Amino acid sequence: MRVFILLLSVLFSQSVAAETVRLGDRWYEIALPAKARGAPLILALHGGGGDPDQFAKASGFARAATHAGFAVAFPAGSGRRGDRLLTWNGGYCCGYASRRGVDDIGFLKQVIDDAARRFGVDGTGVYLTGMSNGSIMSETFAARNPGLVRAVAGVSGSMDTSRLRVRGKVPALIIHGTADTMVPYNGGQGDTSLTRTDFASVASVVDAFLAPWGGGLAETSRVIDRKDDGTSVTVTDYQKGGGVVVRLMTIEGGAHHWPGGRKARLDDGKTQEIDANTEILRFFAARP
């Protein structure tokens, strides 16, 4: 009984209270830091087939972000009525949202405006991150709306670089595994993908976000390999004016997952070398 009570106390101490806000037939969940007024806002987008609550719990991102002083909105994608398997229209992917041409760019702008008005958070420049289909959507939004975005971080998802160009300077962090069989690192159709999307390569996404910065970029690289888990992480930084404008974290042998998340210790290819929450929040905090 004592162990059970201790376990419950640990679980509850790790949870973060989030408020659900309806916007017509869509919604978002938001977790606020101790000082919400003027707090920087992150939009955290779930993967295809997920939902805000699922992503918040699986990633643990709300607790880490609010502790660092960020407000975090977890918007909901779209699906058929009553369907909890939600997707984003990131152009060439994915599912219901893409097939129906859902205006997710417009919806995310609604979320930003509503969160700023309702909770007093800073909506003048936001941060975006996401997993898989959520990564695709985050990168797509940033590419089309650079004036609204302070930085973007994509995990295991690559936007459609054949049709998109990044319209302005957006600092970008890209985390992707070389053994990802859903969204392949080198592009193409994934062996275990639930769609028939011909995904863009990670290299093309890096090039797209580098393009607006022009020439004179310095490139450095380092390797993280501290754990005996069959993976390593190559960190490639592209710098201009003394600051990193694009960071690529290539997980050698890494699968399709959120590093450090709740399911990150179950199977092969789940790296223990980095924690996505830590890397993303560090990258965002350096770009106020």
CATH superfamily: Alpha/Beta hydrolase fold, catalytic domain
Structural class: alpha/beta
Q: Helicity level, as a percent range? A: 25-40%
CATH topology: Rossmann fold
The overall average pLDDT, rounded, is 92
Strand count, sense and barrel status of the largest sheet are: 10 strands, mixed
Number of helices: 8
Q: Specify the CATH class.
A: Alpha Beta
Write down the secondary-structure element order: HEEEHHEHHEHEEHEEEH
Q: Name the overall outline.
A: globular
Q: Give the strand order, joined by hyphens, for the main sheet.
A: 1-2-4-3-5-6-7-10-9-8
Integer tally of domains: 1
- Unreliable segments of 5+ consecutive residues: 1-14
Distance between the termini: 46 Å
Cα gyration radius (Å)? 18 Å
Say how many strands there are.
10
Strand content: 15-25%
CATH architectural group: 3-Layer(aba) Sandwich
In short:
The protein is α/β, with parallel strands linked by helices and 288 residues long. The protein is built from eight helices and ten strands. Strands 1-2-4-3-5-6-7-10-9-8 form a ten-stranded mixed beta sheet, with helices on both faces.
How would you describe what is shown here?
- With 288 residues, the protein is α/β, with parallel strands linked by helices.
- The chain has one domain: Rossmann fold (3-Layer(aba) Sandwich), CATH 3.40.50.
- The chain has 8 helices and 10 strands.
- The protein has helices at 2-14, 52-59, 61-67, 95-99, 104-119, 133-144, 202-210, 276-285, and strands at 19-23, 26-31, 40-45, 71-75, 122-131, 149-155, 172-177, 218-224, 232-240, 243-252.
- The chain has a 10-stranded mixed β-sheet, sandwiched between helices.
- It is globular.
- The N and C termini lie far apart (46 Å).
